[in-house]
Design goal:
233 residues; Alpha-Beta Plaits; eight-stranded antiparallel barrel; 8 strands; globular
């Protein structure tokens, strides 16, 4: 059966108090991610651990589209956080939360969960967004996906209207979207991919050229994943 296209993405970045990280993982695994992926329109939730200077945790939820994140069922959940959720938020800091819509995708879904992801967050120089996105989606992403150990690359744009909806959870943590409007998510087999010359050469023009701004690179390893009951994986 062909995989259903998942157009929406909710991403949450957070640092967590060192002495609370195990409890944070327990909360997210045993309560929060299960609650979220049971909401209609949610397909899968993943938790990652940051490498190097990346935030401690990244939580990603794929949805049918970004409007799932403004649905009555989802808004009820985020407006009625449990006591455990409130506690976990109190031990979190530097929270960034954004809702995205996909605009380009290349490569194939991994045969199993990809053990690593690399995120590129950026803005595009004023006046060249349309041209850049056409090149990035039709040339850059396919070229990277042809590399060994690169499974899939997906490019997202922030859905600013839905990302800024006020909720009870957001009142507690205060997190909103980062100032970068674009996010590329690469699923890879090894972090060594990013150390190879072919990867670095292809990203050099993107990272150091004048077509993008506010560039940020973040690697993560997979910590936990849960699929929703209606997902075909």
């Amino acid at each position: 059966m062909k995989e259903k296209a998942r157009k929406g993405l909710l991403s949450i970045w957070s640092d967590v108090d060192p002495d609370y990280r195990v409890e944070f993982q327990k909360w997210h695994t045993c309560e929060h991610i299960m609650e979220r992926v049971s909401i209609p329109g949610f397909s899968v939730g993943r938790r990652y651990r940051g490498v190097g200077d990346a935030p401690d945790f990244l939580m990603c939820y794929e949805t049918d589209d970004s409007h799932v994140l403004s649905s009555e069922r989802y808004l009820h959940a985020v407006n009625h956080p449990s006591s455990w959720t409130k506690e976990a938020i109190r031990h979190s800091k530097n929270i960034v939360r954004a809702i995205y819509i996909i605009i380009a995708s290349h490569g194939e879904r991994p045969p199993m969960e990809a053990p690593y992801v690399v995120l590129l967050k950026f803005n595009i120089e004023s006046g060249c967004e349309k041209e850049f996105l056409r090149w990035y989606g039709k040339e850059q992403l396919p070229a990277i996906c042809r590399m060994p150990d690169v499974y899939r690359a997906r490019l997202y744009r922030v859905d600013e209207k839905i990302s800024l909806i006020k909720t009870e959870e957001r009142k507690i943590h205060g997190g909103g979207p980062a100032h970068q409007r674009f996010l590329t998510l690469y699923e890879i087999a090894s972090l060594e991919v990013s150390n190879r010359k072919d990867w670095q050469d292809l990203h050099k023009d993107v990272e150091y050229g004048k077509r993008i701004e506010d560039f940020r690179y973040e690697p993560y390893w997979l910590d936990f994943v849960m699929y929703g009951p209606a997902s075909s994986r």
